[in-house]
Inverse folding.
């Protein structure tokens, strides 16, 4: 297995890595691709699974950020729109255009939002998508047949990017691996190593085998998202917190609630958030909330009032009003927003990324979002190579095709998210026809994807497969639970595990899946 090979690389006490990255979410994986593509020896360590935290629980949009435009943060919008265009070019098998409609119920909304979206188009420059436009009431109803018709005046239509966040995370891991990087999940950093007051490495513990490894590095990057403060405190115990955590919750509904191809964008809800109802994998995602948290946790859980908030606002804009019994799945993620001394309103805090360097040389990147992951990686590696005393080498990621790059989906179905690897999955099915079966009638995933995830994508648990290598848990939590025994049996065969392991895996998954279902 590739994981065993990577662990073997850490057993060499004489090896000194150019850059060690802590964290396997969007920022950490982006930094890994950036570092290894410049030719630096790179090791990434993730305490759980790749993108298990916030990076797999987003609104699934690659966007400039209409809300940031409202706030007047033009530089952030411009950067994000540029990165949106770059990602559409570098991963066309994972990112595509998505049309959005802003329904207008006041006479002033059409001109107001129409001008705003034209500015949005202009800021994108040559990397822009289709042009936005004001559409009539009749066309608005054609685009979103279930939008509330009473009082509807017109709509504003614009375009942004949509993607599968966890699949992009796996793609970045595979890209870095293919370029010669070493990336490990379930490898927790438990302390930093110092010599004469400067950080010279980390101590990491294998969460599976329990063995500890002392790893030497010329530079260490802290890219742990909402957990950056815990790593900083390993370096400086009394350091002030950087992060002001904010929880975002989404609910997933049947496609019948939004049967068209266009998404709905509500520019301003009661808590100041932009609210989306977006078609995704033949379901509809509604989100998100913005709830201040006192602390962070590995397993955030939606609060009842957040679910009520989303149902209330969905009912305001849809003719088919959803209830709790209609929720197929719900999920929560914690945003790593940058602390502010002047406000406790997380909706007004910066979504931009910030890089800090401690006196002992720990490089930390905090904040940011999926859309700008590449730029985040470029910026933080630029800082790390200075700390490491490495030769400056220019970034290559702006024009780097990501793993599986495929400009044409024709022939890749039903495995289009795998890009040019779809042909290999089909060959596996041809050799083993039993792998062609669905995991569950309500889910689009096949048994071959379980085997592929174990063999090629470092999936180690049933949850890795059902939540991130596939998106079964998000699309339909009950169906995912029902398919867990089949997944466990397929994984046990691949990993050489016994029936007790299968039983424990199914029980663990059922426990974690409970927070995705309405009680």
């Amino acid at each position: 297995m590739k994981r065993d090979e990577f662990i073997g690389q850490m057993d060499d006490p004489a090896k000194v890595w150019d850059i060690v990255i802590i964290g396997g979410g969007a920022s950490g994986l982006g930094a890994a691709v950036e570092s290894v593509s410049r030719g630096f020896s790179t090791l990434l360590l993730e305490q759980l699974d790749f993108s298990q935290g916030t990076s797999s629980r987003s609104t699934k949009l690659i966007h400039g950020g209409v809300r940031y435009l409202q706030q007047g943060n033009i530089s952030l919008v411009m950067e994000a729109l540029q990165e949106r265009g770059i990602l559409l070019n570098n991963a066309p098998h994972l990112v595509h255009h998505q049309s959005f409609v802003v329904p207008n119920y006041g006479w002033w909304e059409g001109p107001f939002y129409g001008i705003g979206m034209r500015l949005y188009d202009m800021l994108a420059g040559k990397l822009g998508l289709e042009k936005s436009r004001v559409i009539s009431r009749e066309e608005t109803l054609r685009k979103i047949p279930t939008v509330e018709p009473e009082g509807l005046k017109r709509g504003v239509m614009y375009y942004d990017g949509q993607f599968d966040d966890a699949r992009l995370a796996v793609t970045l891991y595979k890209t870095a691996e293919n370029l010669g990087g070493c990336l490990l999940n379930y490898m927790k950093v438990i302390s930093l190593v110092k010599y004469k007051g400067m950080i010279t490495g980390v101590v990491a513990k294998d969460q599976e085998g329990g063995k500890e490894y002392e790893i030497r590095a010329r530079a260490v990057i802290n890219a742990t998202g909402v957990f950056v403060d815990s790593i900083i405190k390993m370096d400086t115990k009394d350091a002030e917190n950087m992060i002001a955590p904010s929880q975002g919750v989404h609910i997933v509904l049947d496609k019948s609630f939004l049967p068209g191809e266009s998404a709905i964008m509500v520019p301003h809800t009661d808590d100041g958030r932009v609210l989306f109802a977006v078609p995704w994998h033949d379901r509809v995602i509604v989100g998100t909330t913005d709830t201040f948290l006192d602390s962070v946790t590995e397993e955030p859980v939606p609060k009842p009032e957040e679910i009520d908030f989303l149902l209330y606002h969905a009912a305001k804009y849809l003719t088919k009003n959803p209830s709790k019994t209609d929720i197929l799945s719900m999920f929560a993620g914690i945003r790593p927003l940058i602390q502010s001394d002047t406000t406790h309103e997380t909706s007004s805090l910066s979504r931009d990324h910030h890089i800090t360097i401690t006196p002992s040389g720990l490089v930390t990147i905090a904040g940011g979002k999926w859309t700008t992951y590449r730029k985040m990686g470029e910026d933080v590696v630029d800082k790390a190579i200075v700390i490491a005393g490495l030769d400056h080498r220019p970034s290559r990621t702006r024009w780097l095709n990501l793993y599986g790059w495929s400009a044409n989906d024709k022939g890749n179905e039903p495995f289009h998210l795998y890009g040019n690897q779809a042909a290999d999955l089909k060959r596996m099915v041809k050799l083993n026809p039993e792998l062609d079966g669905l995991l569950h009638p309500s889910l689009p995933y096949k048994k071959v994807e379980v085997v592929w995830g174990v063999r090629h994508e470092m999936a180690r648990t049933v949850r890795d497969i059902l939540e991130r290598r596939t998106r079964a848990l998000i699309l339909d939590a009950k169906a995912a639970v029902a398919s867990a025994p089949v997944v466990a049996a397929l994984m046990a065969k691949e990993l050489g595990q016994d029936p007790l392991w299968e039983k424990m895996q199914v029980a663990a998954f059922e426990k974690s899946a409970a927070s995705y279902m309405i009680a």
